[in-house]
Amino acid sequence: MKTNPPARRAPRLAALAAALSLCACAGPGIKPEALNAGPLPAEPATVQSQQDWLGRLPFADRQDFEDAERGRIAGLEQPQIRSADGRVAWDAQAYAFESGDEAPATVNPSLWRQARLNNVSGLFKVTERVYQIRGLDLANMTIVEGDNGIIVIDPLLSAETARAGLDLYYRHRPARPVSAVVYTHSHIDHFGGVRGVISEDDVKAGRVQVIAPSGFMEEAISENVLAGTAMSRRAQYMYGALLPKGATGQVDAGLGKGLSRGTVTLIAPSLLIEKPVETRRIDGVDIEFQLTPGTEAPAEMNLYFPQMRTLCIAENAVRTQHNLLTLRGAKVRDAKQWSYYLDETLARYGARSDVLLGQHHWPTWGRERINRLLADQRDMYAYLNDQTLRLMNQGYTPMEIAERLHKLPEPLASQWYARDYYGSISHNVRAVYQRYLGFYDGNPANLNPLPPVETARRTIAWMGGADAVLAKAREAYRQGDYRWVAQIGNQLVFAEPENQAARQLQAAALEQLGYQSENSTWRNAYLSGAQELRKGVAVPPTQGAASADLVKALTVPMFFDFLSVRLNADKAGGKAMRINWVFPDLDQRYAMTLNNSALTYRADAAHAAPTATITLRKPVLNAVFSGRTKPGDAIRSGQMQVTGDQQALAALFGMLDSFTPSFNIVTPAAR
Ligand SMILES: [Zn+2]
User: Fold this and answer.
1) How far is the CA of 264 from the centre of ligand 1 (A)?
2) Alpha-carbon gap, residue 637 to 629, rounded angstroms
3) Ligand 1 centroid to residue 521 C-alpha, Å
């Protein structure tokens, strides 16, 4: 008998979709528990803190504003870029409130400055034959004019914004076809819009080359799969995706204004750069590709254009301190390697470069300034790495190191491009600790602490109960001691999540910390926490389909790995299964085993006595996993053949969990 597993159990890649599309789903549907809607104004201590910042940094230096405006040709004619279904993928006017030079009291003045620089958008001429689209997405799209067509470097995150960028270029420059696309690295904001500028047919017909660094596909696809839902939820905090834009809300994302919300696509590269340094002529343009693996991304490369004396530094040097560990969560990056490659770039191209451009922020003109920037960025990552290790070897633990290394050495600390808008010294030094020593600080008192709710309940009780702690915390709040209030307020909320007074105080403390933060991602995180304490967690709207291109690019092992992550150990308890999978189109076989509540598989193998054997083509797997085809329908239509136990697949799918990126963060996990 053929089976038809219940539809609600059909495995979906919704969570994966969110993760792969990096869509930090903004949503309506706030739970109706709002008490104090907030936001509150800046408290006197915050006003004072902002004032202090003005004397700390060289605000009179206007060079960055000149550079950000230099060569600007035009902006978008229609400020809103819409997708086919009418969704606003990008709104170039959303940050019009950032017009004034003086920061509002609710925004750190250094961050306000960066936010205004990132808001300069449109088409720019960088140098002869080199143009940039900036401020139409998180990243930049660079266009280099070849002999017959144009070379597009990094087609943004969404097809819609990339298309709008190309159209803007064509309105002011000859409409010559795209002859090549270059992906500088494996992060989605640098390739997701590719179908906005070329089609797969162009590539297949040899009209367009797609060039990427070695390892690109594997890295582009794998990073967001297994922990995708957690990353996606945390990305909402980091980018402030659920916050309104405004002086008490989201003002920037450090690397740019924020993420676009269009269609994420991918076309596989037709040419991989494999050698450490490789020179090629593309459409009459000489390009020296310099691989920089294991830096800002696992697969990344710089491009040098000798004819234009121009260096494209990809995302290896940006106008902020970058992340060694992104707040959304990822594997820790290697600061030492990053620093090493920046020096190699400086040595190789420093003397030959008149223009330096990156795939975020504005360019730098002039050899001296370029050399200074590259050397400073090299030193910054070396300093973070080495000084953390020095203090680790003296026995200091992560928070102690973060306190001791709170400032870069001068004059580096006063360079705007070394400031904490995206990465921060505080979280980067803790990332270095994590990379080398892991989660455990070596103190056995921290080896097995009680979990958060239990700790909070006992702490608050031993401190005299919630009312007594609240009274003290309110006093600390009045004194502007927000960092401490946030720590104790968190204990209060975790001990008594329904205590509205505790939630309000905690929200207020997080909010003031957000207002004071120089780092956009910290600000976004603090303000997102405050919003959820006041209004509850926004229930994400029904998520759109996974990016078809990204699902297609997943390998069978990636699908199986994700399946294993969804296995609910309790439901699988005491069950055993041996399933053979056969993919005739790929000529691949896998022997999958369910045992001890763990799902494992072996490639190029088959069980001798399987519970069931499933034969299907890879596109059917894509369709079933992304919810477009129900497994039962696939079986009935003959797209999927099952021999042996016909119920096996339904039973296995019945043991899988689904994930939604709306779990609690600032309040205890749902039980
Ligand atoms: Zn990027």
Assistant:
1) 14
2) 11
3) 14
CB 586 within 8 Å of CB 554: no
How close is the Cα of 314 to the center of ligand 1, in Å? 8
38 Rama class: left (phi>0) / alpha (psi -120 to 50) / beta: left
DSSP codes, 180-245: EEE--BS-GGGTTTGGGT--HHHHHTTS-EEEEETTHHHHHHHTTTTTHHHHHHHHHHHHTTTSPB
Separation of 540 CA from ligand 1 center, angstroms?
25
- Distance between CA atoms of residues 215 and 203, nearest Å: 19
Put simply, whether the predicted model's pTM sits higher than 0.90 gets the answer: yes
Amino acid at the residue 353: S
Kindly list the averaged pLDDT for each block of 10 residues, start to end, along the chain of length 671: 33 36 32 60 98 96 98 95 92 95 98 98 98 98 98 97 98 98 96 97 96 95 87 95 96 96 95 98 98 96 98 98 95 96 98 98 98 98 98 98 96 97 97 97 97 98 98 97 98 97 97 98 98 89 70 93 95 97 98 98 98 97 88 92 93 92 94 69
- Rounded to whole angstroms, what are the CA distances from 311 to 144, 346, 353, 364, 575? 12, 10, 6, 10, 58
> 18: helix, coil or strand?
helix
Token pair belonging to 276: 């450490």
Cα separation values, 417 from 25, 124, 373, 404, Å: 30, 21, 8, 22
Cα(53) to centroid(ligand 1), Å: 28
Quote the ligand 1 centre to 207 CA distance (angstroms). 27
Please tell me the distance between residue 133's alpha carbon and the centre of ligand 1 in angstroms: 14
* 551 SS3 class: helix
**Structure-derived torsion over alpha carbons of residues 141, 89, 330, 596, reported in degrees to the nearest 10:** -130
pLDDT digits (tens, 9 = 90+) for 148-203: 999 999 999 999 999 999 999 999 999 999 999 999 999 999 999 999 999 999 99
Length of the chain: 671
- What DSSP character marks residue 104? P
Ligand 1 centroid to Cα of residue 140, in Å, is 8
Q: Compute, in angstroms, the gap from residue 143 CA to the centroid of ligand 1.
A: 16
Using the structure block, give the residue that is written with the tokens 């069978």.
Answer: 556
Strand partners, 312: 303, 357
User: Which helix H or strand E contains 467, and what residues bound it?
Assistant: helix 466-478
d(CA 231, CA 451): 22
Which residue is associated with the tokens 């991989």?
A: 272
What's the CA-to-centroid distance between 518 and ligand 1, angstroms?
A: 20
Q: Cα(156) to centroid of ligand 1, in Å?
A: 9
**By three-state DSSP, how is residue 444 classified?**
helix
359 CA → ligand 1 middle, Å? 7
Ligand 1 geometric centre to CA of 538 (Å): 27
Q: Is 641 helix (H, G, I), strand (E, B) or coil?
A: strand
Q: Strands 209-213 and 271-273, how do they pair? A: parallel
Give the three-state DSSP class for 361. coil
Q: From ligand 1's centre to the CA of 187, what distance in Å?
A: 6
What's the rounded Cα separation, in Å, for the pair 248 and 103?
A: 12
For ligand 1, the distance from its centroid to the CA atom of residue 362, given in whole angstroms, is 13
Residue with tokens 């020179």: 279
Distance CA 311, CA 327 (A): 29
Please tell me the distance between residue 356's alpha carbon and the centre of ligand 1 in angstroms: 16
390 Cα–ligand 1 center, Å: 30
Q: Which amino acid, residue 444?
A: P
Which residues have C-beta within 8 Å of that of residue 587, sequence separation ≥ 6? none
